[in-house]
Write a structure and sequence with these properties.
elongated, ten-stranded parallel beta sheet, two-stranded antiparallel ribbon, alpha/beta, 788 residues
Amino acid sequence: MASKAGDDPDSLMSLCTVFCLKNLRRTMCYSEGERNQLQLRPDVFLPGEICDRLVNVYMDLVHTDSDFEQQDGFFQLFSDPRSTRLTRLQLREDLVRDRDLEAIGKQDLMELHLSCCSHVTARGLRTLCSFRHSLRSLSLFGCSSIFFRKSGAPLAAGEDQDEAEEERLQQRTVDLDFSFQGFNRLRLLNLGGLPAELDVETLLRPLPALTSLDLSAVHLPRPAFLTQWKERLASLVLYNVELTEELIHTLLQMSRLRHLDISRENQRTSKFKMTRKILSSIVQSLVHLVSLDISGHIMLDNCTVPAFEDAVGRPSIEPCKSSIYPFQELKRPLQFLGLYNTTLCNVTHIPAHKVTGSKNEDQILNAIEAYTEQRPELAHRAINQLFDIARIQHCSQLLRALQLVITALKTHKYDKSIQVTGSAALFYLTNTEYRSDQSVRLRRQVIQVVLNGMEQYQEVTVQRNCCLTLCNFSIPEELEFQYHRVNLLLLKILEPARQDDSIQRIAVHLCNALVCQVDNDHKEAVGKMGFVKTMLNLIQKKLQDRMCDQVMEFSWSALWNITDETPDNCQMFLECNGMNLFLDCLKEFPDKQELHRNMLGLLGNVAEVKALRPQLLTKQFITVFSELLDSKADGIEVSYNACGVLSHIMFDGSDVWTMEEPKRSHVMDKMWAAIQSWDVSSRRNINYRSFEPILRLLPQSCAPVSQHWATWALYNLVSVYPSKYCPLLIKEGGVILLQKVLELESSHQETKDMARKVMEQCENFKEDPMDTSRNNRDYLSEDSELDI
């Protein structure tokens, strides 16, 4: 059988790394001192590959796993190069502090990529000098504070400032003492986003051996200094750098370049216009180019062949057939060509193996892949275009699309625009059309990034997109691995007094689905999270608005589900004024049949708990239940559930019936009449996982009507759904208890006749178990239909 998309298992190395990080004190560390400081065990020695993986995976877990807690002193574990070796690290965002770099200052790092580490200051920059003898690749992309120190604060080696002082707002001044002098092995350098206060020419002068340089968004008033690397530089990135004639002239001298990126985010912000002449000069002068990105540029004159010539033949990547004139001079197709947000991406013949653009799915996916890490503003646009493809057309590269969107959402957890467009795209990429092609592992990754988005943003659009995406999954089965977390998030969404109607409806629907068909331990755990109180609050708000909508009905349905065989949740319902809300709803909405069914189903669960039944035994409640016996709402369901509630109350005997009105005998007569009016072949909107609450009513003589209700319920279920309920009844010992009904003198004759029919039905089923007339439905029933 062919494996599904994304079904490759995690490697043993990956599994072990995550386990060790989640259990540091049980594996390779111990706690020391009053502050329980982490220390590496003295008998642990870790090679470079494992140390690098531990740190890099630690960063991923802190960013993407809400259950994973950041460990104080984690980097200190790697302070001694005799027991740990670090060589290649990728650290990002606000989690990284100056002290973390100082902790690993004795390591011989070869690669250090710091990305958007806004809390790393000039103090951390000084630590970089510890690595100058070994460092070959360094990225300081988006580290806006690293070249600054706090005004008036001495920056002594090893100085220690507490958190309060670090957060204090002080005027920043450029640290003029830092120099790249001595970084003789450095070959790759990324200074993207370098503040304008710094003189990049002076900063880079001590680095004659660079082969790769990224100066994205850096001000270059005198670009001629770049020619000092014209014989060495193989890669130059100048994204969002304002192009000038002087800069173009300089670039044309960089004859060894293999990768050149002169792209822009936005055409409107540039004074420069790309011409056919300039493009031709680049192709002619930079003969070693294999990768070129000119995204975001306005083409001043016509660079493309006439439309009739462009339409000739199948799409080709041969330079001689190029629809873009300057690229006809290429000796071979480029490996990569960035044409995103240009008109050039729309032509037929483009001489490159991989093209970014917006013409088709392949170009859009290439754009998401190329720009996600350091250009979220472009990735956001491309994901939006992928959203349109998935929504309107058909996504033909599903696995790649899902993995790219998941990566973007993980990488930019704090970027609202990415979260909005990414979650919207996931909704369409996980719907029924694509479901059969997706593995369990891939769908779990989707669920995790969706929950990350819900956790990070309380904004309406993100919440709605995330909730809708979760509706594409089988609930509760596919969400069970994150069951506690998803319930907490949904309850948090439902907390505000006035929530967006659509989000409220979807969130309550999800809550209802999550507590339907799960074991009692799950229900009790969710009850302790405040589930019962939250649902009752929603009902209270809807009552105040005099509105019985889907939220009202879903909330009662959810309460019905969560109280099933869970006494603690039933008690919470009573303690939180649930019975008064029941009466108010009944009075306010006398004609809402599904509402009545859901409320009576819930009260049936409460009535099954012996310790709680006295709270139902009041004149007001008994009168209401008695009146509902005559209800024809939702077929027999409301009448059936009202009779079920009364059957459990009657089962406690006449001694507990202390009220004068209504009389016990009168209510029992009404119960007999109601049961005799029901059609035993009625199809049901309910799903029993156990018959135990019904079976306990059989072998008794204090309330024959309760015995009759229980027998009727069993006969109805085994007759209409034999393949589902005959095995369950046999398994739970129901046939033996029905035999006892036949032996009891107090049992009514019609009850005995019905008991025999149930037993015959089970006997017949054992002889012919191939009945296929199943149509079982759970409590969710019609409530599960969402108008989205």
